Amino acid sequence: MDYGDAIAFLHEKAHKTERALKTYLATWTAAPAPLREAVRYSLFAGGKRLRPALALGACEMIRGDDAPALPAACAIEMIHTYSLIHDDLPAMDNDDLRRGKPTLHKVAGEAMAILAGDVLLTMAFHLLARGAASSPAALQVIGEIAEAAGAWGMAGGQALDMAHEGHCVGLAALRETHALKTGAIIRVSVRAGAMLAGADAPVMDALTRYGESIGLAFQIADDILDITGSEESIGKSVGSDAANEKATYPSILGLDRARQLAHEAVQQALDALDAFGPEAHPFRALATFIVERDR
């Protein structure tokens, strides 16, 4: 599979995820209209939908059917969107653009943006809980997603990221920060799909290593794009990491070594898939796509 195959795979899974999300949001009839519109604005603003694609793809790889992972995929995308809304706030990264559109707080105000993020995080677990009785693995998935989003996951990583601003930190501290801030949700996306497909221990181990490796590659690629990308191509302001004095892989290692480290992480992801056959081709293509993408 090549770059185009990865794009096609992402588009297929994005379409399935967005259709399910729209069906779920249609049930929010009791929610105030301004809140529903704020959620809809950010949730359907575009994006690669990488995380739900990983959940759906892992499930499909193992059992040939991605349906058992669809609620988890939707919930993970809701959590990811909440994190973007809050990251963009003036108290955090203070960004004006997200996915080529004005950030939510620029459109609906800071208070509504905070509430929309709160709702997306909370209702993600409502969505997960609705199907908890249908699978023995569902409760474990709920717990792992909560950990990946919480104090020793994404939120903890964001706290470290903010604490490091303006300070000189080493590579080990940077890797710890981004393993939590970015890597934890990517890792749990793969694991959730695999668990809901009934994966055995060796398969879980291999896919966990894959998820950890592409999480690292994704973050390094993001850091590089913040320097080399354009606002038009990446859909958000460039140079914000430097403006906020954030520690990044290029700032610590330089661009060339950062690119090398990203490709090493991709190779580790590919190595984790050695025991799989053609069913893992989409994941192999995604690993390469992550470091070659321009957004």
Task: Considering the chains and any ligands shown, give keywords for the structure.
single chain; 295 residues; two-stranded antiparallel ribbon; 15 helices; 72% helix; globular
Please outline the helices and strands.
Elements: H1 3-25, H2 33-43, H3 50-63, H4 70-87, E1 97-98, E2 101-102, H5 104-108, H6 110-130, H7 138-149, H8 154-164, H9 171-196, H10 201-228, H11 231-234, H12 240-243, H13 249-253, H14 255-272, H15 281-292
Helix pairs in contact: 1-3, 1-4, 1-15, 2-6, 3-4, 3-9, 4-6, 4-9, 7-9, 8-9, 9-10, 10-14, 10-15, 14-15
Polypeptide structure, described:
By secondary structure, this protein is mainly alpha-helical. It has one domain (3-292): Farnesyl Diphosphate Synthase. It has 15 helices and two strands. Strands 1-2 form a two-stranded antiparallel ribbon. A hairpin with a 2-residue loop joins strand 1 (97-98) and strand 2. The relative contact order is 0.13.
| Succession of helices and strands | HHHHEEHHHHHHHHHHH
Q: Which structural category do the helix and sheet elements fall into? A: mainly alpha
Overall strand count: 2
How many domains is the backbone divided into? Answer: 1
Strand percentage? under 5%
CATH class reads Mainly Alpha
> Number of DSSP helices?
15
| CATH homology superfamily | Farnesyl Diphosphate Synthase
Short description:
The chain has 295 residues and is mainly α. The protein contains 15 helices and 2 strands.
